[in-house]
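Why should sequence recovery work at all? Because a backbone constrains its sequence more than one might expect. Tight turns favour small or flexible residues, buried strands favour hydrophobic ones, and helices have their own preferences. The token representation captures these environments compactly. In the example below, the structure is given first.
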């Protein structure tokens, strides 16, 4: 990936289609999965030589959302649920 580390989302006001260009692996994987699942909506335009991917998706798919803020009590509850689920899964697999 020759040092390319750019991720771009581009769309026109009142447009229906956004052009995405990602060099970051997790986004490239997400786009590939969406293209397989929704080929009519998500179309990969190019797999570039620098390792980046370019695709078109509907503008309605774009969202900007900040991460959720949890209280310390909520974090502890989530941690306990995670530990409980892991122990249950380990017990059923073993």
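From this structural description, the recovered sequence reads:
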């Amino acid at each position: 990936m020759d040092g390319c580390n750019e991720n771009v989302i581009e769309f026109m006001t009142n447009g229906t289609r956004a052009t995405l260009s990602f060099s970051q692996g997790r986004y490239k994987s997400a786009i590939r999965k969406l293209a397989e699942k929704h080929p009519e909506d998500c179309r990969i335009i190019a797999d570039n030589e620098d390792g980046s991917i370019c695709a078109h998706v509907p503008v309605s798919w774009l969202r900007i959302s900040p991460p959720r803020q949890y209280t310390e009590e909520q974090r502890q509850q989530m941690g306990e649920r995670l530990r409980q689920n892991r122990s249950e899964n380990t017990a059923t697999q073993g």
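A few observations help interpret the result. Strands lie at 8-10, 17-22, 43-47, 53-58.
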